[in-house]
Amino acid sequence: MLGKGLKRKLEQEEEHEVMSCYWLQRQTVLNLSLLKLHSRPGHSDPGLARRVLITNTLRHIQDELRGEGGPVPGSPLAVVDGCRERPAESHSEGSLTPVSRLEEDRHLLLCLSPPTSRQQPPSSSVIKDSFTSALAEIEDLCPTVGITTLFTTETGRSITSDPNPRQTDPGLSEMNSSTDSVSSLSDSALSVFGHTPSLLTDFSLDDFLFTEIDSLLFDNIPYGSSLSASSGASKVVSMVTDDLVKTLTGYSNGGTSQSGLSSNQTFKLDLSELDHIMEVLVGS
Amino acid sequence: MDGDGEGQSRWCLSQVKGAIDDDVAEADIISAVEFSHSGELLATGDRGGRIVIFQQEQENKNLPQGRAEYNVYSTFQSHEPEFDYLKSLEIEEKINKIRWLPQKNAAHFLLSTNDKTVKLWKISERDKRPEGYNLKEEDGRYRHPSSLTTLRVPVFQPMDLMVEASPRRVYANAHTYHINSISVNSDNETYLSADDLRINLWHLDFTDRSFNIVDIKPANMEELTEVITASEFHPLQCNTFVYGSSKGSVRLCDMRASALCDQHSKLFEEPEDPSTRSFFSEIISSISDVKFSHSGRYMMTRDYLTLKIWDLHMESRPVETYQVHGYLRSKLCSLYENDCIFDKFECCWGGDDSEVMTGSYNNFFRMFDRDAQRDVTLEASWENGSPGCPLKSWRVSAGSRRKRSEIGVDCLDFSRKILYTSWHPQDSIVALATVNNLYIFQEKPN
């Protein structure tokens, strides 16, 4: 290395080179980190240690970027990690996931733009903005992810079709019906587990898209007793995703012409199916 | 200090176990290696949840020229895959750790764990069986009472040795996160199990309760920045244990101080060298293994690039630092991309604490002689070396050269890594696992 007391002065060009190398590496690490956090490794639980390390690396880079005053991709970041941990947080001592996790999914769906009250869905214009900007970010990073475009066409259409954010909005109302049934489950479960659901203030829409909705629908759509095999579970999850697409397509196509009565009937069907699921779960 | 290429080391390949095959089933990949307290037994666990125990041949053991061989003693299925229905996640059956209990009687006991459940297994021998029943034939059929004319006393007759493994305890449902360590206490009655955020203390006899002694879970999970990565009880003081974290610090706790040891008694942390700071500084500082010396005076930690020996009386910095594969420092970005940077390497002490050892990539492993301040890089390969022949040492250089005993960094095979190692408690015998196989090395007799 250099001797003591010897200072080397970088030429302007050299310094730019070094800095652009640094920027390039920083950008690479940033992209890699976001990719790693958003990819689903499979059916077994991805390690917490790995996620924490990647998240810390990402935070460090984001802090640097924020300090330099530039745009900060991938934020809000804190809950990329927090979303996955939240289910674990509400666990009682034990390996079972309490149904309060489903309670959190309800919040994810309702709080599409932070911060907002838990029970009120926000206005659709706000939904559209944060939704599409987050999607645009993801598409920049992962252009090959098919499910992103799927959601863009289906849910984007259904959400923007009706300015009224309440029951007549077909996309949201479908989700609301699922979550209402979920909340009836979780309310009874809450009394058993004694947990209070936590308020999500900050989360990443990416996580909502890629993780929670799969599990949410998986729990709501009826299945036989074929859940014992892990391969069975993967089939159910992929079936669920297809069902989601079909359901949303159905609602967005016929949404505006459906009467309120028929949607209520559909909601009741969902509830009875959920009761059946609960029986299976609790009975076994 | 960095590999002075002695040419020949004093270690020789003794045995290779497992299929000599490039096509390895995922379930056969070894994930744990551990010698028993006497060294007579060697246990391995794999990703399929099985445990295979090898036993050292007794006859050759005491001969000076004899290479004591390890042969299969028992094989059993320790853990099965499970499914968490509510999370819709698989619980892997992969064995994360095996720890032997000190032997108290003829049977052997070990603890094995996967991500969620710890089990106590009893391995016992049966070499006699009762023969000469009055009411039953030898094949189990009942004799007709009218055919009985005399009575006899059943006697034990020798039979072929049968080794039975039976689960004696199942310690379940105490960990929300993945168990990364188990450690038996010197009191031989309790043990600890550690996951990412909590450490639990168990009594071996009780499976329905465990005592939480460390909990680093923050109230708000969004604030989580540090996890527990490894933990071990002190070999002599039953009240002392340590745990390492993902931020490169090790905390020593005294269970006498309080019931919940969230406040550490000592914090071992080396201040970061600002000249080597990079985006990956935190990841490579994460402690992958922590082991006390046999004497109980020192502690060794392994992070991604180094081995550090700490004196328990000095928290500010380690007393010795060894570079395991410093040439990887310039490759960290690629290693981050292919996830190798998250590999957790184990380390182990030699029987007299004068040597330590750990694994690396390309099926290399590193041995460090603390007294002589010498280190050597050896390769675990059944192709390059026959049993009994001393291993040649390797050097790793920059670039992509490949010579007789030198290899360039760019030629290293990062899919062949030695993560799991164990050293015989008394003799100079080491066991380590490559992805495919179990290797046993012995010191060349002089």
Automatic annotation (TrEMBL), chain A:
Compositional bias of type Polar residues: which residue ranges? 156-167
Gene Ontology CC: nucleus
Q: Where is this region: Disordered?
A: 156-180
Pfam families tied to this protein: SERTA
Q: Which InterPro entries match?
A: E2F-SERTA_domain_protein, SERTA_dom
Q: Where is the SERTA domain?
A: 22-69
Domain of life, source organism: Eukaryota
What is this protein's name? Answer: SERTA domain-containing protein 2
Query: Which organism does this record belong to?
Result: Carassius auratus (Goldfish)
From TrEMBL, chain B:
Molecular function GO terms recorded: protein phosphatase regulator activity
Establish whether keyword Repeat is in the entry. Answer: yes
- One GO term describing the cellular component: protein phosphatase type 2A complex
Q: Which SMART domains match?
A: WD40
Extract the PROSITE patterns matched here: PR55_1 (PS01024), PR55_2 (PS01025)
Q: Quick check: keyword Repeat in the entry?
A: yes
- Looking at the UniProt entry, the stretches that span the membrane are none
**Keywords from the named record:** Repeat, WD repeat
- Quaternary context: PP2A consists of a common heterodimeric core enzyme, composed of a 36 kDa catalytic subunit (subunit C) and a 65 kDa constant regulatory subunit (PR65 or subunit A), that associates with a variety of regulatory subunits.
Q: Which family does it belong to?
A: Belongs to the phosphatase 2A regulatory subunit B family.
Protein's name in the database: Serine/threonine-protein phosphatase 2A 55 kDa regulatory subunit B
Lineage per the UniProt record: Eukaryota, Metazoa, Chordata, Craniata, Vertebrata
